[in-house]
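Materials and Methods. Structural model of Putative baseplate assembly protein. The 828-residue sequence of Putative baseplate assembly protein from Paracoccus siganidrum was retrieved and submitted for structure prediction as follows.
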Amino acid sequence: MIYFCCDQFRRAAVRGSALNGIDFVEVVDRDAPSPAMRQRILHVHLLNDPGALVLSRDQIRIEGGERIRDIRVDTVTMGLGPQTNIVMVELDRAGDFSPYRLRLRRSALDEDPPAGFDPMLAAAEFGFKAECPSPFDCKPACDCAEKPEAPPEIDYLAKDFPSLLAVMRDRMGLLAPGWSERNPADPMMTVLELLAHAADQLSWAQDAAFNEGAIDRCQSRISLRRLVRLVDYAIGEGCNARTHVHVAVSADVVPLAGDPPAIPRGTPLATLLPQAGVTVANTAERLAPAAAVYETMHDLRDLYAAHDEMAFHSYGDRRCCLPRGATQATLAGHFPDLRAGEVLVLEEIIGPRTGRPADADPANRAPVRLTRVTAFDGAAPLADPVTGTQITEIEWDAADALPFPLCLSAETDPEFGAAFLPVVSIARGNIVLADHGRTIAAEDLGTVPAPSFRLAAADHGCSGGCERRAPAFAPPRYQPVLAQAGLTHAQPLDPGLPASLSLIQDPARALPQIGLTSQPGGADWTAVRDLLGSGPFADEFVVETESDGTARLRFGDDINGHRPEPGTGFSATYRLGSGRAGAIGADRLRHIALPLAQITGLRNPLPSTGGIDPETMAQVRARAPHAFRRQERAVTRQDHADISRRLPEIQRAAATWVHTGSWHTIFVAADRLGGGPVDTDLSRRLAAHLDLFRMAGYDLNIHPPIVVPLDIALQVCVAPGHFRADIRRAVLAALAGPIGPDRAPGFFDPDRYSFGETVWLSPIIAAVQAVPGVASVRATTFRRLGDPGIGGLEAERLDFERLEIAQLDNDPNFPEHGQLALTLFGGL
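The predicted structure was written out as tokens:
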């Protein structure tokens, strides 16, 4: 099952039909014939009478389990007395507390469901501990969790008039506690603003007093760029913003073989233009009023009207949602023209609580790149075997896994009629990736001038007297400037990247979007970051940008890069628009500069991503002197720990030196992201990584950290009007991880604590107190697991050694991984 659905009607549809399926699985516990057989007998209830069907033990497979796995089937008996629809299965052993799955298959070599069984009901989940006492309500939680809001971004590096004024106001609050800011006309505020303005001007004058002789004194950004390159620092020129764009059409647009694509690469897209339709003329005058102009980054070969809105198929179930992390879904309808590699945007179109389109959450939109599309079953269209409805199954890359639960169908709140909404979210096709920038074509840059400065020639004596030589001239200076400022910088597009990753750019790999053509000859010149690696015949050049956005072009010297000959003319084709100025919100793009009558709408469902401004001179001065001081050898313990963290999956590491007889061995404890195991594969890769940096004569040994399980007991007072079972579930979710389809991390997530970090009691109390419905909370146990003393209850903290990491999983299958006991009182 690929959905998390609240109302499941699939069983009702199969019951009484020609197909069969599993209704539920019953674990025989207290009613077992002997204590040794408790939880080893399963009663598999089928929806319909199996008739002559006889299942063998090879056709029944038990999957899942945490501590107890690979459970085998001993015997299978068809029927239980007069109940012929029950299959009695005897297992070789009982399972643990984790969920298991019983699946029917044709044979040990064929994993497909047996003939006559519905594929959706050929497996069922169950738990061996169903009869064990539980403090939770048996009613399953059914809701689509809300996505947490992102924290605001605060820039603490500002140094300008407002920041200086704020500092002065804070100072006045200390010098004159009785004074408070009232309005701009206040005399004291006037004085403070004058002082802040004078301080701002003084700061500017101090910077302007320096010259171009050093990094911290130059005023030209081009000079700074060349100076920091001497210490191997490449100045960041930023990059432009990108977004996925949906194109709605009234009819299919399928060009013939050899014809141009429906939407060619480089087609301009514009924000709102006054008194204009969806399609506009591709002229600078027509696009000039737009706040931002984007251009498509690749060809969109075909456009299909059926791909504008594609609903999801939930196999007859209701109130369904795609859970967080989903990578597959089923579309309602036959879409044979969907292809792997295309991008879809999954979008909520109406509010699930109200049923109003205006209440749809614009944040519940996600682009995905398809990796598999199944629209046919052999030569026939793929269909639901129960209802016969045509469907299309899709899968997308794991990197595009849904970051939030996406509601597919819902029921409105009682105040809005409690109406069933069959379609809450849809998938949109006809998606093209676009980035910010407007193309300026064939701008004349003039010609390379003839040399005008003569070099002083040395006199050479000879037997015939003085010999007159031809004069030598200095190479001409040719550094043309682009007529318009704001040159676009972008990273080249990798068409195979997942949809979410294709929006992300690395400014260090961004290149100026400009190309030159020289005349005569029509040679193409390419922009590069620098000419240090260019040969003497390479037609390459460098773009150098000043602080005001003015772009100057610099050519080679026939040693590093080809020097253009005098009289050579150049024309430039480049793009304008980069940085945060081109960032737009969702649904801002409205027009396309393409005369295609079938296009009826254009929009960007998601806000643009990226849009990084070039590094300022202040940022370069702060970073460049230290960027080259990167440790490339491991000498101390801290060196080994820091270099280990360069592996993306290592959160933190700690090293220890031990003399093992004839040499030293460096023991490196690795803390893996997500709390994953330090297995053989990770140990091998980390050892190979550290081997590039370690000193000769020192051995390496990789081992996991020392995990210290915790024992915590809390007494929670539940506020009136709240159910204790609900509060228990919420507290466990806040501390040890959530229960349900949304897997947001809890307080004791493995990535929260690392080596030697102290666990304080007060944040734990605060996390529980923040749960709605908790009136108060008190800790009764706070210690290491197995510690007979009071632990850190009096000190309100637990300290750990350098190689120890705190752990609290609260997993009943692994009680040695930490335990959390809750005592609730009050409430309902």
